[in-house]
What does this fold into?
Amino acid sequence: MNSSIIYIYVFPLMLIILALDFLQMPKTYNRRDSFTNFVIFGISVGIKSFTKLIEINIYFFFYFLLMGFRSEFLGFEKIGNHWWSVGLAIILADFLYYWFHRYGHEIRLMWANHIVHHSSEHYNFTTSLRISWWTHFFKFLFWTPMAMIGFHPILIMYAMAIVDVYQYFLHTQHARDFGIFEKIFNTPRLHEVHHAKNPEYIDKNYGGIFIFWDRILGTYKAWDPQNEPVFGVSVPPKNDSVIEILTHEFVNIWKDLKRTNSMKEKWKVIFSSPSWSMNQFKDFKNKDNRIIEIDFTNPVEEGNRAA
It folds into this structure.
C-alpha cells in the first residue's frame, strides 16, 4: 500500500483542526501569509509526486544491493515487517530527521533551502505547509541508511510519513505545558522555540516526534514564559512573493561568493554555518538590506495566544 494513503486520510483532519484553530486564534493568522503558504504547498505536492519515484527506486537499489552483505556479515538479509520493526523504523526515521533538520540550520546551503519554512513571521498550521520545493530533490538521501541496513523501502516511506504528519500538529500557538510528555515528545511550545529568532532560541529543538534527541545531543531549549518567541528569521525575504521566499538566501549566498577571493572562503560561504557569513559580511548588511533589528522586549500582542 502506498504511503501517500497516510496523507490522504489525515489531510481532512488537518483542515478541520486548522479551521478550529483559526476560529479560536484568528490573530495568529495572516491572510496573505496563509495564501502564500498554500500556494507553496500545492506546487510542492506536485513536485513530491515526481521525486517520490526517484526516492523509492534509490531505496530499493540499496536495499537489494546490500542484501548479500547483510546476510554474510550481519546474519540477516532484511528486517521483516514485525510490530517491533515498525516502531524501530519510526524511531530511526526520526533520528535521521533530527540530523537532516540540524544540518538544515548549520550548513548554509541547506539553510538556504530550509529558511523557506522559517521565513514566515506567523506561526500557525499553515506554516507547516511552507516547505521549500528544493527539499524534495535531496531530503530522502538522509534516509538511505535505513534501506542499507535492511528496512523495506515501503516501511521507510511510511515511517517518514508518520514523522512528517506528527509535525503538522506542532504548528499552533493554541497549546499548553504538556508536563512529563515533553521529556520524550516534541510539542507545540517546544517547536515554537525552534521557530523563534530570539537569540536564546536559535538552533534549538530539532527533533520531529521525539525531543529526547535534543536533550541527549545538547540542542534542547525549554519554552520560557518570560521570553515570548518572536517568529521569523534574521535575514528575511525582501517581499512576500513565492519566488523571493524560495530563492532569497541562495541569492545572498551568490552575493557573498562574489565578495570572496580564496577558495577556502568560498567553501565557508556555502558549507559553514549561516552565522559565519553574517559575521564575515556584516559590513554589507545595510547595503543588502539583510539584517533587521529585532526588539525582543515587546510582549506578544494580547489575544494572539491561548490563555
